[in-house]
Write a structure and sequence with these properties.
The protein is mainly α and 294 residues long. Helix content is 77%, strand content 0%.
């Protein structure tokens, strides 16, 4: 009975130094991550602070000094002077139609390439992957000619269809890797019981791939919402401009009004930020799931 406390003391003396031990590599990684995060956040802090300052406060105070008086009027003035109501509506229509439609087409195509046995499946997959390697900048001139030939310049379909065409290959590539990782016994058992491929896709594969679809939704939403070059070529009517084009026009007219200009930038990126915050818990798990090899 008397030996137990002594043994306990020996155990405590052995354990305490282990608790105080720290991995220098891990500490260095955390310091590096904090520094990178500060560098990444600094421009956003500057934009938000400037958007809440009057013109006099912007010139008299430093860039990273918080505003003494909140000038929320900058947001109202920028919204009305830049005619952002029309641009916001156009961006919402294009994004809300393009993102779900593109994801649905990509998911069905990826399932077909991964689970339906065809002799040309690998050739089709290589063709899809090849589509991810073509930079869309080199396709702008022929794309404009094609869209103009169909009479779709300055229309929603004229922008949505090219967006889908350039977004589907990457999404199919990610979803194909995820579907290949799902055991084939699940689909084979359902097919033996008389289910069709569409039923298998809708009831088995679609619920399983929701995290991947959520991650792709974030990426697709942000890229579509912020897309500039293709919209600049295909949307020439000012009433059909999206938010990035409206922001470009506003910057050209009111570049010296820093408060309103930064307020316009905040209003432009805010919807994409909200969507990311809503689906952020699926982002990392979804992308890593899509990287599974079959």
């Amino acid at each position: 009975m008397t030996a137990l406390p002594a043994e306990a003391d020996d155990i405590d003396t052995d354990i305490k130094p282990l608790r105080l031990k720290r991995d220098p590599v891990l500490i260095g990684l955390w310091i590096a991550l904090v520094l990178v995060a500060l560098i990444w956040v600094a421009p956003f802090v500057f934009i938000v602070f400037t958007s809440l300052k009057t013109q006099a406060a912007v010139t008299s105070t430093g860039a990273f000094m918080p505003p003494t008086e909140l000038a929320f009027q900058n947001y109202a003035d920028a919204w009305s002077r830049g005619n952002f109501a029309s641009s916001f509506f156009n961006s919402v229509i294009i994004t809300v139609i393009k993102v779900p439609l593109g994801l649905a087409l990509s998911a069905m195509a990826a399932y077909a390439l991964a689970k339906i046995k065809l002799k040309i499946s690998k050739a089709l997959l290589l063709l899809v992957v090849f589509g991810t390697m073509i930079p869309f900048q080199v396709m702008l001139a022929p794309l404009f000619t094609l869209v103009n030939a169909f009479g779709l310049i300055d229309t929603y379909p004229g922008v949505i269809l090219p967006y889908i065409a350039f977004g589907v290959p990457y999404q199919v590539f990610i979803l194909h890797g995820f579907f290949k990782g799902i055991p084939k016994e699940l689909s084979e058992a359902a097919l033996i019981d008389g289910a069709t491929h569409f039923t298998v896709f809708r009831r088995i594969f679609l619920p399983v791939c929701l995290p991947v679809l959520a991650a792709l939704l974030i990426l697709d939403f942000v890229s579509t919402w912020n897309e500039f070059a293709m919209a600049l070529v295909l949307l020439q009517d000012q009433h059909m401009w999206t938010l990035p084009l409206g922001l470009m026009s506003f910057q050209g007219q009111f570049s010296s009004n820093y408060g309103q200009l930064n307020a316009a930038i905040v209003m432009t990126v805010l919807p994409a930020t909200i969507v990311y915050l809503m689906f952020q818990r699926y982002f990392v798990s979804g992308l890593t799931s899509g990287a599974v090899k079959g």
